[in-house]
Amino acid sequence: MWKKLIFCCCVGFLTVRHAKVLKCIHVKSRVLFDFQCVAHLTYTNLKCNSSNRNIGEFDYCYIKAVNRTYKYISLYYKLYKRPLSNITLNIQMLRKSNGYKPFTPNLEVDICKFLQNQRNPIMAIFYKSLKQFSNLNHTCPYITDVYVDKMHPANFESDFGRYIPIPEGDYALCFHFLAKKVEICNVCIFCTIFN
């Protein structure tokens, strides 16, 4: 059964990287834990928008290129209305193909509930990549400003891109934050996935 599961995963990836996937199917499909789909990710753009300036706004939001291959994201969201609770996150993954079009179904997560029990596997991958660079490491309510400091894509590569086959191309990851069903801000990370 595991061989069939891995083979199906590789075949779904076959259209993008023919030679490497055939090698993956032929050599590594015998042992489950040796199978890896490794892709590299680089940030290309970052857009932050405060939808409701009464609740808070971005102090800064930028990508810093240290060299050609190492870029990181930093942002700081200043809260005016405190405490902030009942927070929902809507995640969209868009792929560029004559404009940005939905690539995966939207993921909607109640942040307060997730931080209490962390049982959503996809959100757990995002959170694991984010928590060491941010102060989003406690449950609701939020009474301090929120920041992400020098988040580089290596964690996404090792956690997310290792097990989920994603074709090469340009993508946008959009995070829409809602408080009591009203959008307060959104962050769109534009990136390129390549071999």
Short description:
The chain is an alpha+beta fold.
Radius of gyration, CA atoms, in whole angstroms: 18 Å
Number of beta-strand segments: 9
The best one-word shape is globular
Order of helices and strands: HHEEEEEEHHEHEE
Taking the sheet with the most strands, its summary is:
6 strands, antiparallel
Helix-residue proportion: 10-25%
Known CATH architecture of the largest domain: Distorted Sandwich
List unreliable stretches of 5+ residues.
1-35
Q: Could you report the average pLDDT, rounded to the nearest whole number?
A: 80
* Through-space gap between termini: 29 Å
Annotated CATH homologous superfamily of the largest domain? Ganglioside GM2 activator
Keywords: Signal
Organism: Drosophila grimshawi (Hawaiian fruit fly)
Protein name: GH15855
Signal peptide: 1-19
Give an overview in words:
It is a single chain. The protein has 195 residues and is of the alpha+beta class. It folds into 2 domains: 1-35, no CATH class; 37-194, Ganglioside GM2 activator (Ganglioside M2 Activator Protein, Chain: A, Distorted Sandwich), CATH 2.70.220. 24% of the residues lie in helices and 39% in strands. The longest helix is centred in the N-terminal third of the chain and has 12 residues, at 2-13. It starts with a helix and ends with a strand.
